[in-house]
Design a protein that fits this description.
44% helix, sulfotransferase activity, globular, Rossmann fold, alpha/beta, Sulfotransferase domain-containing protein, 15 helices
Length: 303
């Protein structure tokens, strides 16, 4: 029974150079589906790797990018993508970068939402878009169906990129604060689990066990150390072609560039005190103090 909770309802579409949220209107859920959600560059691929390893008992070379598509990415066309996902016979796990109110929410699916300090997000975004090749920008900007302006190449200075992103609330992508807040507001639902990038870095084995428990996946203890090893950054970097979309063909340097540093705090020596104060003030204003503390890596308050 799912009647005791006020389940989220889709209230809008979000379509831009990257996304087409209308695909969720035609996605046919199964009771054990897993949805991995983030704003972007917040540990999505890392969490996909963890789920892929848990579902496949720690085997080598799980093709995560193939098994776990970004459902609302507008390429390939949604009919083609839906057919591929529908054909999967194993337990499915898909990725989204949408806020809660722009996707169809299923009471029977499990949702993992990963947060990361917005300043760390921007440094990762900067690497992502600075190293993207011409084919990347052509795919996003020239494929028919784009809504709104094209995605621009970033400026050469990461601090300028951060300031444009902060001033434009996620520019040139999609709004940042509403994405975080929308998932924070549904954290009490029994099928939603909030994770944080900093916690994955601090205690990967413990976080994997929490995820397994939430997803109701029985872990073979003899395989657990292998699962943890395969979710380490070093392993993912060496096997980046399995995690990067289309094997990393859209980035100069290939998949090794897509799986970049996996570190936090690169902004600390770059941003001014004024930049940091403005970011912190906006976080508190847009998210509220509890959510802002969580996003900064201070942990989820007890519920």
């Amino acid at each position: 029974m799912h009647t005791q909770h006020a389940w989220p309802r889709k209230t809008r579409e979000m379509c831009n150079h990257h996304m087409d949220s209308t695909i969720w209107n035609d996605f046919r859920f199964r009771d054990n589906d897993i949805v991995i959600a983030t704003y972007a560059k917040s540990g999505t691929t890392w969490t996909q790797q963890i789920v892929g390893q848990l579902l496949n008992a720690g085997i080598e070379d799980v093709p995560v990018a193939e098994l776990s598509p970004w459902l609302d990415l507008r390429i390939p066309p949604k009919a083609e993508k839906l057919a591929l996902v529908e054909a999967q016979v194993q337990r499915r796990f898909v990725k989204t970068h949408l806020p809660v109110d722009a996707l169809v929410f299923s009471p029977s699916a499990k949702y993992l939402y990963i947060g990361r300090d917005g300043r760390d997000v921007v440094w990762s975004l900067f690497n992502h878009f600075s190293n993207a090749n011409d084919d990347f920008y052509a795919a996003l900007n020239d494929t028919p169906g784009r809504v709104g302006p094209p995605v621009p190449r970033p400026p050469e200075d990461v601090v300028q990129y951060f300031r444009e992103w902060l001033d434009g609330d996620g520019y040139p992508l999609w709004p940042f604060w509403e994405n975080i807040r929308s998932w924070w507001d549904v954290r009490d639902l029994p099928n939603v689990m909030l994770l944080h990038f900093a916690d994955l870095r601090a205690d990967l084995p413990g976080q994997i066990r929490l995820i397994a428990d939430f997803l109701e996946i029985d872990v073979d203890e003899e395989r657990f150390d292998m699962i943890v090893e395969h979710c380490s950054f070093d392993y993912m970097k060496k096997h980046a072609a399995n995690a990067a979309p289309l094997g990393g063909i859209f980035w100069r340097g290939g998949a090794q560039t897509f799986i970049h540093k996996g570190t936090n705090g690169r902004w600390r020596d770059a941003l001014s005190a004024e930049d940091n104060a403005r970011y912190t003030a906006l976080a508190n204003e847009k998210l509220g103090p509890d959510c802002a503390r969580w996003l900064a890596g201070a942990g989820v308050p007890a519920l």
